[in-house]
Model the fold of this input.
Amino acid sequence: MASFVPPQRLVIAIAVLAAFVTFLDGTVVTVALPAISRELGGGITTQQWVVDAYLITLSALILLAGSVSDAYGRIVVMRWGLIAFGVASVAVAAAPDPLILIIARALQGAAGAMLVPSALALITATMRGEVQSRAIGIWTAFTTAAMLVGPLLGGLFVDYLSWRFVFLINVVPIGVTLLLLARLRLPEHPRGIRVDWWSGALCAIGLGAIVFALIEQPNYGWQSPAIWIPGLGGGALFTFFLLRQKHSSSPLMPLDLFLVRNFGWGNLATLFVYAALSLNGFVVGVYLQQGPGLTATAAGLASLPMTILMILLSSRAGAWSGRFGPRIFMTFGPLLMAAGSLMLLTVAEDFDYWWQVLPAMIVLGLGLALTVAPLTSAILGAIDEARSGIASAVNNAVARVAGLLVVAMLSTIVGGTLDLDGFHNAAWVTTALLILGGVVSWIGIRRNRVDRADADAVVAEPR
Done:
């Protein structure tokens, strides 16, 4: 078994901490949404924008940030990303009204986009072979933990301090990461490649306009120029972005990757599965507080069984996938999660967590643990090592966009209000998305041509 030398340990620590703050902030906010809405107002629309403002800039800029990192150096980009993330976090915590809060969240997402590709690139640039696989496994474990324990940490801060402190959780790890980064002596050779800024702008503005139309549509209606103009304009800009990728000499998202069978079908499955996960996480975290009246901490604890099962089973699922191929796990896992989502229909006015929610969380956790590692191995294992970085970035972007769009459509999905009927509507939509993810996987996924020993080492990458 290969071991890490001191500089490699430092690189892993920096990569883990840098990505940790980004993934934590994506999920820690969910249980704080009711408290934010009570203090600042705005109802479900404000709640949607608090989540989506972050996801818009994170998902739209993550590919651009990867190119910037290659062009100007990973350490420089990471350092500026950390500083910007810290400043934006303080601005969110101090926001006096919803508009300032939403703007600061968008800045947080832009800073987070600078951190994720740089963090993983530090590992892939400094390690090879078994050492690299082990390092990515450690990175995956810690960043996945950040995503899954986020609601619990957020709940504790909301109940015992204030929702504002939820956004200051990152200040300490950001400070530690900057100190470690100053100790890292890693020669960098920026490639000076051309950065396609226009593509980044087209992607960001296009997605932003589409999401604006989806979120505000219940307030204005589709017939309003304030809705259909940004909706159509955003769709046109995003179409131009895709066309530009087809003809660009240095595309942010190489479209030919999607011609590879497992990559194309796997990302379609990612779109459905992660849309379902984002919808379920948002609705459960918010409804359990606004409906049955659970505390923010209790609402965060509600999803803890999923966290535990992911930690216990995901690595085994990766090994099983290497032995038997990913197709069966990518099919059965989402279908099992769909069954868990259907179990949430038992939630009633006479609320009982132990009989109505806990069984569903266990089934959802089992399905998720069976899905994530095989999904990632199928997608990244289909692409040659030279392009694994961009393949990973594209898959991360697809997962982010999935969450972005489904949260933007939340008001339409739940019928305008997240009451019990709205909660049940969301459970039905979540179920349908997961079934689609399983069906797509069964139709499209095949076993990659990799050695079984290599396949056993593949570890899931978090979203």
